[in-house]
Design goal:
The complex is a heterodimer of chains A (about 300) and B (about 425). Chain A is about 70% helix and about 0% strand. Chain A is mostly helical. In chain A, a hairpin with an 8-residue loop joins β1 and β2. In chain A, α9 runs antiparallel to α10 and α13 packs antiparallel against α14. In chain B, α9 crosses α18, α12 crosses α13 and α18 packs antiparallel against α19. Chain B starts with a helix and ends with a helix. About 0% of the residues of chain B have low confidence. In chain B, strands 1, 2, 3, 6, 7, 8, 9, 10 and 11 form a 9-stranded mixed beta sheet that branches. Classes of the chains: A mainly alpha (about 300), B alpha/beta (about 425). Chains A and B meet through α13 of A and α3, α4 and α18 of B.
Chain lengths: ~300, ~425
């Protein structure tokens, strides 16, 4: 920066702003994100229970063990399922609803509020609520069983059904969030565009397809980004619903890390899982930012 | 639970006020898992107050954390300046890790000789390692079959006559035939399921083979013996003895169902006597007349002794930086009078010498006798083997019950975890 530029930078208060606001963020980030990250990378090479100092160096064994562990493979597969459902069910659903209730009317506000409600609820509370809902003894499924005089069903105790139920709850919980992103974007579309199309005789469906959705591309890109990062980090809905069970069939990468790294006191192994998760998130975020979300691409 | 939270919150507030008011006090932090019910909490609270009254200048802070969270939080907590002075322990593998990490205090010379002499070698041994005494035992627990006498009569089963595993399996079939759920179990928590696998191992293999396996001899846990244990468990599983949806039920719910009289058997520690009543929908549960206990049946040709028991010896460990006052308070908590009172209140089975004479609860007296007659008391395998191998034992027990694995694979998985330890 030229001396002139620096003087201006110093005199118009920007220097003070930087001096005041940068250090806290930088320090917090360094101490709570960067340093633990390097720590974790170091621990990943040890067989360490978390007690005392890590001493037993095992090289890449933690990574090999993880790659060969059927539960880890299952948790990767589950994470992929979550991503798939988020992209192909949740986002289209959110989009459809957004298109239906984007215009500012009284009834639409009510619907928006209702659809957004699940997102406001705490994840743990949501998980508990749905675990009661699907409880074959006390839950709504038990009630349905009584009404139709069938045997009660316990979907969360079933290895086949537990994951689909979780996927359903994920969609239920997060579609409102994506809907809101789309509604915000829809409201920024100039009305003359849609009016012009109406005058030309376009049907609402055509307007949505030819005008609104193409103009929503940046919002869709953001939505997909949040979906995938959120899916990779999914944890707090799973724990109260199944805790990763039955038979470890519903773990995601993070619940896998928690169960097999932290609860079982294998901090070295858990760190290795954390590193893999971190690399996946960073690689995705980086690639996505560089390709889909590049300003030129819009 | 609400009450518990309220009491804890009030306790915390009072504690905070207390600690600011008496800043010169020696503060003793005692951290425990959440105890079931106000009775035990009040008992501990009263003990702390009595000690404080006798020893001016001491401020005792009792804190509780939920079991699973406690296990996960402890490593970080114990290695931070906020570590408690005295904390709850199940003994076993996790305790060994803590001892080896050097975060515990050898109290052999800190605790008074009377304090140490007050406990049996077996009790003290549960919290000793390499000749160092790191803590004191508080109570023993045994896993037994609890049964509902009304349902047994309804199904025409004479539980007293059940002695062998085969007879037990027949009783399960009879109960099913009578339309009664034979067994409730909290499969979601996995550890209730590991009681079956462990108890069968205790009966079929016995002390020597279990110890040999943990040392990796004879193929370790992948030995034929452990495969056979899995096979016997699968024989039970194939009868579909558990309540519907058992893999989505935690221990609390299973205990609730048992307390509500929904099933004939529950394989559970003696603590379920109190827990099943609290968890029962009506808060009353089964009466002493309706309840019965039965020792785990023997298995034909099994190498284990018929009197061998399975359960825990739980107690307290002392952290490295704890003051001598903290050790003194620990000794006070587990002295004969306090132990006797705990036994008399029906909280648990005391382990201090001469403390069991106060036990009035007939079931606890039975359990206390069982423990006295036991040649070999196997600690909960998920604790004894440490968190990682123990976790796999829990996993495979639940998987066997859900039909998600075979006895052979199950045994190999435990052995694999042992080798990777």
């Amino acid at each position: 920066m030229a001396p002139n530029g620096f003087r201006r930078f110093a005199s118009d208060g920007r220097l003070i702003t930087v001096a005041l606001f940068l250090p806290p963020a930088l320090l917090l980030f360094t101490f709570f994100v960067t340093l633990p990250l390097f720590d974790a990378a170091g621990y990943a090479g040890y067989n360490w229970s978390g007690y005392g100092e890590p001493e037993q160096w095992v090289g890449t064994r933690n990574f090999e063990q993880m790659a060969g562990h059927s539960v880890f493979q299952q948790s990767l597969w589950n994470t992929l399922k979550v991503i798939g459902v988020s992209l192909f069910i949740q986002i289209p659903l959110a989009m459809t609803l957004a298109l239906l209730i984007a215009s500012k009317t009284w009834s639409n506000t009510v619907f928006r509020l209702i659809f957004f409600m699940p997102f406001i609820m705490a994840e743990i509370a949501t998980g508990l609520m749905w675990s009661f809902f699907f409880d074959g003894d006390y839950g709504v499924t038990a009630m349905l069983g009584r009404v139709f005089s069938m045997d009660p069903i316990y979907p969360l105790s079933d290895r086949t059904w537990a994951m689909p139920v979780i996927l359903f709850v994920i969609v239920w919980k997060y579609f409102g969030f994506h809907m809101m992103i789309f509604i915000a974007a829809l409201q920024s579309i100039p009305e003359d565009l849609t009016e012009a199309a109406q005058i030309d005789g376009a049907t609402p469906f055509q307007i949505a397809r030819r005008i609104k959705i193409p103009l929503l591309k940046p919002a869709i890109a953001v939505s997909i980004f949040f979906s995938i990062i959120g899916s990779l980090q999914l944890f707090d809905l799973i724990v109260p619903m199944t805790g990763g069970g039955p038979s470890n069939s519903t773990h995601t990468i993070v619940t896998y890390l928690y169960t097999f790294g932290i609860v079982r006191l294998k901090v070295g192994f858990g760190s290795a899982v954390g590193i893999v998760l971190f690399v996946m998130c960073v690689a995705f975020a980086f690639l996505y930012q560089r390709t889909v979300m590049r300003p030129e691409a819009e | 639970m609400n009450n518990l939270m309220k009491t804890t919150a009030i306790g915390a507030v009072i504690g905070l006020m207390g600690s600011t008011a008496m800043a010169q006090d020696v503060v003793i932090n005692v951290l425990s898992i959440v105890v079931d019910g106000e009775l035990e909490e009040n008992y501990r609270e009263a003990m702390a107050l009595a000690y404080e009254a006798e020893n001016p200048g001491i401020d005792i802070q009792l804190e509780y954390i939920e079991n699973e969270a406690y296990k996960a939080k402890l490593p970080t907590l114990l290695q931070s300046p906020a570590r408690p002075d005295v904390f709850f322990s199940w003994g076993g593998g996790v305790f060994y890790e803590q001892a080896e990490a050097g975060i515990l205090q050898d109290i052999s010379n800190v605790a008074s000789p009377e304090c140490l002499a007050n406990h049996s070698d077996a009790g003290l041994g549960s919290f000793a390692r390499d000749g160092n005494q790191y803590g004191m035992p508080m109570y023993a627990a045994e896993v037994v079959f609890w049964y509902n006498k009304d349902l047994a009569a309804q199904a025409g089963i004479d539980v007293d006559s059940i002695e062998t595993w085969d007879e037990f399996l027949t009783a399960v079939e009879t109960a099913k035939g009578a339309g009664i759920t034979p067994i409730v179990v909290g499969g979601k928590d996995k550890w209730p399921m590991h009681f079956y696998y462990s108890m069968l191992a205790v009966r079929m293999l016995g002390e020597d083979a279990i110890l040999a396996a943990s040392a990796g001899e004879d193929g370790g846990y992948a030995s034929e013996g452990f495969v056979n244990v899995g096979e016997e468990f699968v024989r039970l599983v194939e009868l579909e003895p558990f309540q519907p949806g058992f893999m989505d039920a935690g221990y609390d719910k299973a205990s609730n169902l048992f307390g509500d009289g929904q099933a004939l058997f529950q394989l559970m520690g003696n603590w379920d006597y109190n827990a099943s009543r609290q968890n029962a929908t009506d808060g009353v549960g089964l009466s002493d007349e309706q309840l019965g206990i039965m020792s785990f049946p023997t298995v034909d040709g099994g190498a284990g002794g018929d009197n061998d028991t399975f359960g825990g010896i739980n107690g307290w460990l002392v952290s490295e930086t704890a003051s001598p006052e903290a050790v003194d308070f620990l000794c006070y908590m587990v002295n004969t009078e306090n132990q006797r009172e705990g036994g008399a209140l029906g909280l648990w089975i005391p382990v201090a010498k001469d403390a069991s004479d106060g036990i009035e609860n007939p079931f606890f007296r039975q359990v206390s006798e069982n423990l006295g007659a036991s040649q070999y008391h196997q600690l909960f395998l998920d604790q004894a083997l440490g968190a990682s191998v123990g976790g796999v034992v829990n996993d495979i027990s639940a998987d066997l019950a859900a039909g998600a694995t075979t006895p052979q694979e199950a045994a190999e998985l435990i052995e694999e975890a042992r080798q990777f330890q």
